[in-house]
Amino acid sequence: MNKPNNLESLWMPFTPNKTFKKDPRIIVKAKDMHFTSDDNRQILDGTAGLWCVNAGHGRKKIQEAVTQQIEELDYSPPFQFGHPKQFELANRLAEIFPEGMNHVFFSNSGSEAVDSALKIALAYQRARGHATKTRLIGRERGYHGVGFGGISVGGMVKNRMYFGSMLSGVDHLRHTHNPSVNAYSHGQPEHGAELADDLERLVQLHDASTIAAVIVEPIAGSTGVLPPPKGYLQRLRDICTKHDILLIFDEVISAFGRLGKATGSDYFGVTPDIITCAKGLTNATIPMGATVVQDYIYESMLENADAPIELFHGYTYSGHPVACAAALATLDIYKEEGLFEHAGEQAPKIEKAAHSLKGTKHVIDIRNLGVIAAIELEPRGNAVGARGFEVMKKAWDLGLMVRANGDTLAFSPPLIVSDAQIDEMFTTVKSALEQVD
Ligand code: PXG
Ligand code: PLP
Fold first, then answer.
1. Cα(116)–Cα(273) distance, rounded to whole angstroms?
2. Residues at CB less than 6 angstroms from ligand 1
3. Is 251 part of a structural domain of the chain?
4. This prediction's pTM
5. Nearest ligand to the C-alpha atom of residue 221
6. Residue 242 domain flag
7. Between the CA atoms of 161, 162, 164 and 170, what dihedral angle is there, to the nearest 10 degrees?
8. Cα–Cα 20 to 30 A to 88, which of 150, 180, 325, 361?
9. Residue 314 belongs to domain with CATH number
């Protein structure tokens, strides 16, 4: 049965339920670069689902690994017991993550990976005798998922304003978006490294002895794709090191090939103390998140613990065997098919195709990095997001999935995207732009 006849019971996430249910977009199948809609149309996946199906849809190897795992061991409790694949997966991640980042804590989503990272940062500071380091610093326009920790350090107003006072002791850096000097930058913008000095100002205000960690996305995704200005991340790293503040890179989007490397840290050549990831970890087949930490964090927690359990934190499904099986098969695919390298090769083609839309109706900025591009539209009067939403719907009618984050269209196709599909994506969106007021 492809057509559900009652859409009312489901409360859809981050979706205008009323409008959606009047005019639903239903997806019934997916293979490689395409979705199939319930009216049997092929839709080119310009977004890898939600930035997560990095190896493309319906991968046999992952299906087989998952099926076999369910038969062999469907579940085992993660507290006080182990199963082999979670150790194997942690080792495999340590191999491809930056040097020194050899310890992995598993969860089930990016939001949980972020919550785990923030809690680990606080517990680590306390364990090493810096119990006054409790402040967390995020950034305006940051997205770190939807847990209370993530929305507190996050910087997207609608994700915060409805939910009370959230965590206390949180402050924010300014965001790095400055179209007056950086519009239409190809790749990383030239201007804005000095915005990292906001952290110095916060240190002046609060004192470093009260600050546990800073969390940023190395490239901001959900807020409409903001590549970091050249030199910005290194400057943030230097200030964190100078003041003994942990730097957390939220790599839920940027890990697993999105920038042509295993991690954004690797791509930018800047190593944080903690990395969060999810999404591409399992090619989105089974939910999973991970928080990867530097050796000194894990070792200090173990050495200085004041109880036999060193970290009072964990999920029923931490390191779920089926998710581990999916992740191991996914990492095999990335390696065997050289998908991170392929992504690196496609990046300049995406850059060229995206920027060819300069001058198209409504377009006010174009940004790109790796296998990510964004086209920002002029909002229609006061109706912020309305034009972006209509272009997204029009593109769907024309056979393309794009994401509208407000009035910014975001492109993040599976890394297997071909040259012809890159052209198709931008030709289709151009035509959608021309058809929308
Ligand atoms: N951190 C970052 C940097 C993310 O991009 C999360 C955390 C949360 O992950 P989960 O798995 O809890 O959703 C994300 C998720 C969009 C969009 O429209 C992006 C995300 C999620 C949903 C929509 O760009 N990123
Ligand atoms: N709520 C209740 C009542 C629970 O018993 C549990 C876990 O045992 C949770 C929430 C947390 O669930 P999870 O471990 O899947 O995050």
1. 14
2. 50-51, 109-111, 114, 143-145, 217, 221-222, 250, 252-253, 278, 403, 405
3. yes
4. 0.96
5. 1
6. yes
7. -30
8. 150
9. 3.40.640.10
